[in-house]
Write the structure tokens for this entry.
Amino acid sequence: MGSSFGTLFRISTWGESHGPGIGVVVDGCPPRVPVTEALIQAELDRRRPGQSHLVTQRREGDRVEILSGVQDGLTLGTSIGLFVRNEDQRSRDYDEMAHKYRPSHADYTYDAKFGIRAISGGGRASARETVGRVAAGAIAMQVLRLAFGVEIVGWVDSVQAIEAEINPETVTRDQVEATPVRCPDPATAEAMIALIEATRKDGNSVGGTVRLVARGVPVGWGEPVFDKLEADLAKAVMSLPACKGFELGSGFAGTLITGSEHNDAYRTDASGRVFTPTNRSGGIQGGISNGMPILLRAAFKPTATVMQAQETVDDAHQPTTLTGRGRHDPCVLPRAVPMVEAMVALVLVDHALRQVALTVPIPKPDGLN
Amino acid sequence: MGSSFGTLFRISTWGESHGPGIGVVVDGCPPRVPVTEALIQAELDRRRPGQSHLVTQRREGDRVEILSGVQDGLTLGTSIGLFVRNEDQRSRDYDEMAHKYRPSHADYTYDAKFGIRAISGGGRASARETVGRVAAGAIAMQVLRLAFGVEIVGWVDSVQAIEAEINPETVTRDQVEATPVRCPDPATAEAMIALIEATRKDGNSVGGTVRLVARGVPVGWGEPVFDKLEADLAKAVMSLPACKGFELGSGFAGTLITGSEHNDAYRTDASGRVFTPTNRSGGIQGGISNGMPILLRAAFKPTATVMQAQETVDDAHQPTTLTGRGRHDPCVLPRAVPMVEAMVALVLVDHALRQVALTVPIPKPDGLN
Amino acid sequence: MGSSFGTLFRISTWGESHGPGIGVVVDGCPPRVPVTEALIQAELDRRRPGQSHLVTQRREGDRVEILSGVQDGLTLGTSIGLFVRNEDQRSRDYDEMAHKYRPSHADYTYDAKFGIRAISGGGRASARETVGRVAAGAIAMQVLRLAFGVEIVGWVDSVQAIEAEINPETVTRDQVEATPVRCPDPATAEAMIALIEATRKDGNSVGGTVRLVARGVPVGWGEPVFDKLEADLAKAVMSLPACKGFELGSGFAGTLITGSEHNDAYRTDASGRVFTPTNRSGGIQGGISNGMPILLRAAFKPTATVMQAQETVDDAHQPTTLTGRGRHDPCVLPRAVPMVEAMVALVLVDHALRQVALTVPIPKPDGLN
Amino acid sequence: MGSSFGTLFRISTWGESHGPGIGVVVDGCPPRVPVTEALIQAELDRRRPGQSHLVTQRREGDRVEILSGVQDGLTLGTSIGLFVRNEDQRSRDYDEMAHKYRPSHADYTYDAKFGIRAISGGGRASARETVGRVAAGAIAMQVLRLAFGVEIVGWVDSVQAIEAEINPETVTRDQVEATPVRCPDPATAEAMIALIEATRKDGNSVGGTVRLVARGVPVGWGEPVFDKLEADLAKAVMSLPACKGFELGSGFAGTLITGSEHNDAYRTDASGRVFTPTNRSGGIQGGISNGMPILLRAAFKPTATVMQAQETVDDAHQPTTLTGRGRHDPCVLPRAVPMVEAMVALVLVDHALRQVALTVPIPKPDGLN
């Protein structure tokens, strides 16, 4: 279980790191949405290994095929099947790992849960699983853009202690894509790149944070109580590999100021639209979007695979030592950006459709206006 | 929508702050679990307003009635109906709020989403809604304790900048309950209490963090990909009113160290059980519990209701000023502890049942051992 | 599990035959729908025991209380809590049944499944459980009527071998309600009543069929593949106590003619609307409503409780004999009519909302018209 | 929406009749179940077109590929991806149908619902969609067989008015597979074959019924109220293309006898096991299996495609005439048998896992035995 996500716009993913490929079924996409392989490919290329010298050098073209649900470039309203064939599987890199549990990886927990695990490459616990998310997210983003004018921009906000200072109201995807580290501040990006390259040489890894803004979300998305918009966003983002923390708006820092400082006053702009001059709420109040940009931040731990000898146990629970090999990321952050964007898009489109479902035309009872 | 939570142990809540009462339906609780009104009441009393001078003075006994699903103190395996009647509703406190949107409250977003809202007391956006969560959580905790030996302890970790230093391996609920602020370190608790009381006098509010440990969770709970244990925990906790951030294990601080520092080595104890001497993973790897204590932290913003004049708009979107009145919490943290515990219990019991469902007896194929 | 139904308009029921009462939570009802206790009561009165001499004489007023989700007669869009207190519980009638399994009842299966069961009155397996369905169905019908102009009429089509011949295009609820047996053909109704009264004197029971028409359903409700409209209708109706069969349109009889005879030709009426002069499809094609009346039929077995000695076993699996006592229905059919209507309404409103969710405004790509 | 089925053993299907292929994702299959392509292929071969002269002559090998979730012949417990490539797509057969609605097909309803439809071959409304069901059902059957000893046998019970008389306690799949019409009574099978061949020559079609027995289902599968085992079976079977009716046990005929005749007495066999000498209940009481064989019957209408001129309208709603062409089934019944079996297997395995989830070890409270 666990490979499906969403209520009305629902995706189901499958595929292991070292099997024939990875796929996703998207069920509930509205009909007549323009969707092409090129649209999806553009997002997959941002997630793809080997895209720059900063990330793992596994060579995957990650070419997507649309197998169903689209006709002449338009969605049919029925389930969409997407498939990406695996190309570069060097299973020999994993020989030693067949019986040794990699520290802070899921080898041990999968073995204990299922009594079996995919020996090569981590199976479903591999970040390769996110191909399905990003492919489906590309379709979600297309719906959000065309039907609602929503724009989602994520970026690398910090690598270890190197932090950027970015204005979420104006940052653009072009700025983000201008450097391979996906930090839209050029000077900070340089420092991050230098740190990641030094870390790679050390055979070590570093973590950091992704920040994201969703602009154009109308007031009214999200549900009371359990399916609050921030709750679904938290689940979506925290389900990504290596994610250890999530914040909306002021987040943990918001606990350091008083209520009178924290509250976002309401005002009305010239067009009569309600807005808040500050946005510590992160665009959501009581679980429902308030029309301001949605602001969130996610923490990604340093990648668990390091090229150093580490203490561990084998699958007979005997002590042993393991030295990481294979082609892994010294820093997952640049590739995490499209993953976070995809998950946010999947949550937003789902709540958008749920809100559309409420627009049932109920006539006013007699005597009311 | 949004008032249900869980897959196999599923709850549905209803009730507004100022209506006849609050209730919850628990569907999927295993049969023959000892459940009494006293068991549930003990948890509700920890969430209850008026329990100490630190929290809102609304006077609610919060007496729970079991209306179905339990016979002679044992669950029947069928849906359990619980009901708590509202007692102290001073709607007049809300007269001014009927047409003015309280800053950083959900008045505006509910009105915009539904075209209508419960005028008094916030309706479903009131923290009173959490009565249903805590009542259901008491049953979840009972299953976890009796069937699996799991123990959940939450505490107030910080109020504004005052932070406690607590050992999650040894902290007990008795220590937590020893002070009204629910911080198990007595000296820190004193400082927190002083800050909250000063804040109340100012008519202001403060936020802080709750930390929680779940001890005794066996290896194997949680699902791959989307329903990772930390993802479901994040959703559960972030769905609580005023929650703005969530961390598992090392959280955001974990991004500041390298992978070789962050990884948790595996070892085997005398009984052959695998463990990790460090626990930066927070007890979960790849979405699945690893047998170590589950460690998490949640940020709660300062309460939005402050007794000071604030700029806002009314429901005709005209500028106005609103001064908070009514009986509200200067600091939600002490009452947040049982809420976080309840949500964690609901997630854990659900994943426990999902894992039990996998224990189908599949015979080994011929020739395998 | 199993006490919830629906995707977007979702209900959760609770309550046993001999506990404090029965309730239902309705989550997902659109906001601003006029809903009163009187509206719901009118449907409950049609399901109520003691409504005529034909049905069980248990005396239940079945007075519904709205506990949440409605303000000044309009739904809030949040979860609606409904409660009906049990009034007349003669548990002594059940003393003998505490240890003997009633033939063709669920006593044995509940005991085997759960290791415990509600001793009095059948617990959740009692038809009293349907109070929650009918109450929620009243709200569903209100949405269908006001927002979509849908009208649902069910009637008793046969009691044992006595069959009515009713025109589904013109039959009205007034005609149905004109006799206590709910068969809109007066002469057939008389014969049915005579049979039921004779059966009661014999201490025996009879079954029969309910037929139902839903008029005004627009084209487009229902989903491809698994959530076909007829599939969800079948589940809904077959989940009612004592229901053993379901047919859409031509049903089993349709297997006796050829394809060229069975097909419904398409024509266009004066207003340009597509229709079929015949309706063997029962208003659904490929799982999706086609704009014609939805026609279905359900079989209800003779009630299992008969006032005659029957061979059975006790809960130690020893052979014994049991003679039915208590106040039971010789024929469930008259009371089944509002139950079937409620279940059909719940399915239709859910699919209506799912279809509304698809009406996302997707702009046409350039170059298309 | 609508392309997913199940709660714990959950499948999601995709693929159109005339696209690249058909697939299914199976999520929630227990780990370590022996599954091979050969196991699945055996069931697909029974569903396959061109398997005999009785069915459509479209030439599809229907070769299944396992793309994920299985390693060295054992399931991993993670999502299983299955793919069947389409081979023989004669789209030219569909030219005329691009703008004319085939009577009693879903062309019109899909167009009206989605504003677009797959022009060739019916898209998701084609019976080709059932490839995914049958492939997933093969895995479900393997779990049922290995873990629970359940055996499912379906057969063609009637073709038009030709009915077989088969003993459900003893019928075997070998007997069913002995004739291409899948009726285990050889003489009746001959008559059915003759009728189908005559019908094909006429360019017409015939319907009929499938009967099915599931033997070895233990007592306790199924849930109270809405997810009754018969309700989920009804939904599953009624979701198959062309299915118009469903009966459990005595079904509609059961309404013709009295309660004292209809009730199944309980007895205990030599081993202490409770059974019923009759089985009018069809193996289910109160929604929960009672340990007796599960007996059901499904009605399939005559195929809508007939080789005769029929009155219809085009997609501009203008009257026109359409004469069926292409390679279609004069009688869907022989191929419906594996489809019904697959759907029943999917329901049973899901409820089996739900019941396993309830086997949480709850210790008895002190003082109870």
